[in-house]
Amino acid sequence: MAVKTFTAGSVLTAADTNTYLANSGLVYVTSTTFSGTTINVNNCFTATYDNYRVLVEVATITGNVVPVVQMRTGATNTGGTAYLYSGADFLPGSVSSQGSTGTSSFRVGAHSSGAAGMDILEFYNPFATKYTGLTSTTQGSYTPDSRFLIMVGGYLSNTTSYDGFSWQVGGSCTGTITVYGYRKA
Amino acid sequence: MSQPLIGTFHDAITGETIVRELTADEIAALPEPSNEFAPFAD
User: Rounded to whole angstroms, how far apart are CA atoms B39 and B42?
Assistant: First the structure.
């Protein structure tokens, strides 16, 4: 019951409001401000949704950092060598590729001190016993006038069910992280 | 002496957020920092 068409004279009931207006396509799951070198979110992936969007808004950061993401289950990070990804760094006047075929984390973006940025992460089937997919899009800057866009896609080649994730940087940062689920019906 | 590594731990069920120093085990499990971005490798 994802869509209902109201016509002239239709009565908009409280139930309709709750069902059709309050429950949008993206549904808020959780959010927190953060500080430090790792941000760990537990119990955000459940059977309620298959796919998730995570916004990582970086407000301040120390140094030049390239964040990585690891999946979590039972509040423990998953390392190993089963993360595979590829992507591209778009800089003014140039594009370079990057990637890895078997490493301990997803590389998702880049951020530089004094420049706020945003990582948009999309997780596919993290809670299901399927491969967990991830795509990320990052915008940022590393000097006052040098902008960049980074796009990465990959997957974790095991069928473990994950209930959380860890976003990690080599430096210290502050910001806000928000998790949304894609409504299924 | 190096600065302690701090982490934020958030639970989506309870809404609780804790900011604390990472344990030795958590530090040992951290992946190697990446420099996989050309402008940062200069």
Answer: 6
Nearest Cα to Cα of residue A59 among A185, A169, A149 = A169
Nearest to A164 by CA among A121, A109, A110, A119: A121
- CATH number at A25-182: 2.60.120
Report the C-alpha gap between A16 and A181 in whole angstroms. Answer: 21
Q: Distance between CA atoms of B25 and A55, rounded to whole angstroms?
A: 28
The 8-class DSSP code of residue A32 comes to E
Q: What are phi and psi of B38, to 5 degrees?
A: -50, -45
**pLDDT at residue A89, rounded to an integer:** 92
Burial of A111 (0-12, 13-18, 19+ CB in 10 A): buried
The Cα B9–Cα B15 span in angstroms is 10
User: Looking at the predicted complex, does its ipTM rise above 0.90?
Assistant: no
Q: What is the pLDDT of residues A74-95, one digit of tens each?
A: 999 999 999 999 999 998 889 9
Contacts B42 to A, Cβ<8 Å: none
Q: Is B18 on the interface with A (CB under 8 A)?
A: no
Q: With an 8 Å Cβ cutoff, is B29 touching chain A?
A: yes
Q: Looking at the predicted structure, is the pLDDT value of residue A143 above 90?
A: no
List beta partners, residue A12. none
Chain B residues lying within 8 Å of A30, measured CB to CB: 10, 12, 15
Residue A102 is given by DSSP the state E
Q: Is B24 near chain A, with CB under 8 Å?
A: no
Q: The whole model's pTM is what?
A: 0.89
